[in-house]
Amino acid sequence: MTPLLQVRNVSKRYGSRIGCAEVSFDLYPGEVMGIVGESGSGKSTLLNCLAGKLTPDGGQVVFDTRMDGLVDTLTMSEPQRRMLGRTDWAFVHQHARDGLRMGVSAGGNIGERLMAVGERHYGRIRGRAADWLDRVEIDQARIDDRPEAFSGGMQQRLQIARNLVTGPRLAFMDEPTGGLDVSVQARLLDLLRGLVREMGLSALIVTHDLAVVRLLADRLMVMKGGHVVEAGLTDQVLDDPQHAYTQLLVSSVLQV
Amino acid sequence: MNAYNFAYLDEQTKRMIRRAILKGLAVPGYQVPFASREMPMPYGWGTGGVQVSAAILTPEDRFKVIDQGADDTTNAVSIRKFFERTAGVAVTERTIEASVIQTRHRIPETPLRADQILVYQVPIPEPLRFLEPRETETRKMHSLQEYGLMHVKLYEDISRHGAIATSYAYPVRVAGRYVMDPSPIPKFDNPKLESEAIQLFGAGREQRIYAVPPHTRVVSLDFEDHPFEPTKAEHDCDLCGAADSYLDEVIIDDAGGRMFVCSDADFCRGRREAGQSGAKAGALS
Questions:
Q1: For residue B188, what are the contacts with CB-CB under 8 A and spacing of at least 6?
Q2: Which residues does chain B have within 8 Å of residue A82's beta carbon, measured at their own beta carbons?
Q3: Are B210 and B32 in contact (CB under 8 A)?
Q4: Where are the domains of chain A?
Q5: Which of A40-44, A144-148, B177-181 has the lowest mean pLDDT?
Q6: Taking CB atoms and an 8 Å limit, are B149 and A107 in contact across chains?
Q7: A99 touching chain B per CB within 8 A
Q8: Of A89, A91, A108, B17, whose CB count within 10 A is highest?
Q9: What pLDDT, on the 0 to 100 scale, is given for residue B2?
Q10: Under CATH, domain A1-88+172-256 is a member of which superfamily?
């Protein structure tokens, strides 16, 4: 099987400081990879480099596109990369405000990607938007409300709907459950797990919450100081951590 | 009067503006940046249009200025006087006699000819501005033809009002490439953007010039199931009886009395001189 995403030696420096260094891994179709580590360990830098939001200093990010097969996204032209960004890729921000248009209704938010790829039929756009509101468990009656009127959890679910409406194959998620209370987190995780399984979506999830990766991720990478210090199957890494930092991380979680 | 250079601006400035105009004509709908000058009138009064007019006027031209369709409002009168004084050109109120027409918020009802130039005053040239505040981002969206956001605005209109409620400054796509703000003309005038005349747009404060060459395809954006519709008041002109011109609603007394009159004053006068009359024509004269 061809990996959906092949990452080779991706590095990013901020002047003399290291953002992330020499990161390599493969992500296969339908697989969910968790990236954990403390604040400042380079998780978000890595994610932004892979999603084309930052330009890495070196390395390769090869994506298996639908049309042209394997393409290095770092060397492809900007229009192509932006097109990928609204079709085959999804990016879920930690703060829903960063990923939503707060002045535009929920339906318009979901429809934006459809209109960006050329859909010009109001009825169909609205139908798809209503369908996606259902799938992320938001009442269809709220289709014309602005995200400002939504709770934090609903905003996050709306952001997910807005990203998944074009049927992407790879989702980048930056702390999708950060800032939500635990019961809302649980529902969101449940929803995400369902969607990932149902759509055969691959995902890269950056988080510092080990419970999130335990539930969602098939594999896990642990980062510290910009380097990947440990990688493997989620259960294996969490149950039998080898690196000192991973051991610290696992033992820091409160057992209730 | 020769204390001024012809048409107020110095020759180097006019050359600079003409270069911007030529570039605009070569790339229809593209906003060409230009070094807008201070004009002896405030921003918002048509400083962009005035600079474009100054750059294209010749001593043989006959100049007409309209503001919301009328030749006799403050804005129109002052700009006309300005060029009478600084360029000494002949002026007219008749659309068919004019070779250069500067306009604010309207396109004349009388179809324009190939030997005429229409100059628009534009307040905000960027059609994406209220959707995306960053200039760097809107430029990128234009260069990559990422115009989905424009339809998000129309979607919001329909979801809130049941129909596309944008009634002026209605976005158009020029020659299948650039999305353009046609300046705040009513959408009734959008079909007239496909014209035999050259159309130039000047935005003084925002320092942009753009253009629509003659016979260029100009398509108003819409949805398949909510097509573009040019709208006007459901009425005939009360002075000249015209059923196909854009109308102003005028309140005529304190008892709720009102009448509808052509917004294009020259068009209305022409019809009345030709013997046409509307429902209230006699009552007012």
A1: B230, B231, B232, B246
A2: 144, 146
A3: yes
A4: 1-88+172-256, 100-167
A5: A40-44
A6: no
A7: no
A8: A108
A9: 64
A10: P-loop containing nucleotide triphosphate hydrolases (3.40.50.300)
One-letter identity of residue B236? D
Which of A86, A104, A120 is opposite residue B156, by nearest beta carbon?
Answer: A104
Name which of A113, A96, A93, A94 is nearest A149 in CA terms: A96
- Percent helix / strand / coil, chain B, rounded to 5: 30, 20, 50
Closest partner residue to A122 among B146, B155, B160, by Cβ? B155
Residue of A115, A123, A144 lying closest to B151 (CB–CB): A115
Flag residues of chain B having pLDDT under 70. 1-2, 283-285
User: Is the Cα torsion angle B239, B240, B244, B246 positive or negative in sign?
Assistant: negative
A140 versus B283: which is more confidently predicted?
A140
Which parts of B73-231 are beta strand (E)?
A: 90-91, 100-104, 117-121, 172-174, 178-180, 198-203, 208-212, 218-220
Predicted pLDDT at A158? 95
**Six-digit token string for B68:** 């919301």
pLDDT above 80: residue A52 = yes
Banded pLDDT at A256 (limits 50, 70, 90)? low
Instruction: Identify any residues that bridge with A228 across adjacent strands, giving them in sequence order.
Output: A223
The answer to whether the CB atoms of B148 and A115 lie below 8 A apart is: yes
Residue A70 has pLDDT above 80, yes or no: yes
For the four alpha carbons of B80, B86, B91 and B95, in that order, the dihedral sign comes to negative
Q: Where are the alpha helices (DSSP H) in chain B?
A: 11-26, 47-56, 74-86, 135-143, 148-161, 265-273, 281-284
Contacts of A79 in chain B (CB under 8 A): 144
pLDDT at B1: 53
Q: Do B160 and A107 touch (CB under 8 A)?
A: no
Are A101 and B152 within 8 A, CB to CB? yes
Closest CA to B14 of B78, B71, B70, B57: B57
Q: How far is CA A15 from CA A12, A19, A24, A37, A58, in A?
A: 9, 9, 22, 22, 14
